[in-house]
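We were asked to recover a plausible sequence for a given structure. The inputs and outputs are reproduced exactly as logged, with field labels preserved.

PROBLEM: sequence recovery
POSITIONS: 208
GIVEN STRUCTURE:
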């Protein structure tokens, strides 16, 4: 069973939580969990979150605090208001809905969905092996996407007020620099859609 955690604690740490953890309340507080084998749910305001090596689904909803997830093999869902989101080594798919902060997702394998309204978004895949489509949208600023060195996908990228730059040979920039469309690794699926108010930069991909 999930292990309840007392609310409004200034600092909470836990390791090897086989039953998972549920954290709720209002800070300021810091939650640091490592090696969770059960579901993790964190919800509240002013709660800074750090989760490392999670083997079960993670769901985080925070306000006015930063979130870090490093190492997750199951699905990760993050909702953040006025805080930065950092993720790395995410292999089970990730969804981020955020406003007012930056989003950085590194070492991703699997589908990504980002709905942001902040200064910047960066997504870097290790491999383009997802079966499901991905959507990366930033209504507030720039987006940078780095594609993996193996696998492939279809890419559609567009900027409403900035420019699109592409280092991908199969994804040329068209329509006056505001749009790019094509394929990474000659694939037609899955589809990766990138939408930004600011600039979009596309790089990486398989190299011959």
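RECOVERED SEQUENCE:
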């Amino acid at each position: 069973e999930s292990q309840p955690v007392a609310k409004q604690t200034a600092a909470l740490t836990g390791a090897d939580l086989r039953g998972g953890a549920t954290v709720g309340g209002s800070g300021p507080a810091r939650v640091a969990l490592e090696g969770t084998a059960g579901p993790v749910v964190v919800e509240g305001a002013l709660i800074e979150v750090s989760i490392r090596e999670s083997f079960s689904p993670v769901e985080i909803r925070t306000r006015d605090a930063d979130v870090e997830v490093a190492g997750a093999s199951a699905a990760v869902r993050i909702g953040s208001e006025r805080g930065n989101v950092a993720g790395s080594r995410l292999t089970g798919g990730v969804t981020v809905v955020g406003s007012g902060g930056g989003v950085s997702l590194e070492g991703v394998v699997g589908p990504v969905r980002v709905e942001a309204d902040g200064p910047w978004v960066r997504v870097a895949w290790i491999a383009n092996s997802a079966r499901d489509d991905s959507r990366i949208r930033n209504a507030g600023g720039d987006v940078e996407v780095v594609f993996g060195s193996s696998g492939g996908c279809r890419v559609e990228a567009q900027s409403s007020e900035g420019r699109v730059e592409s280092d991908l040979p199969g994804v040329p920039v068209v329509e006056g620099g505001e749009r790019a469309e094509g394929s990474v690794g000659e694939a037609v699926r899955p589809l990766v859609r990138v939408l930004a108010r600011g600039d979009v930069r596309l790089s990486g991909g398989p190299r011959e």
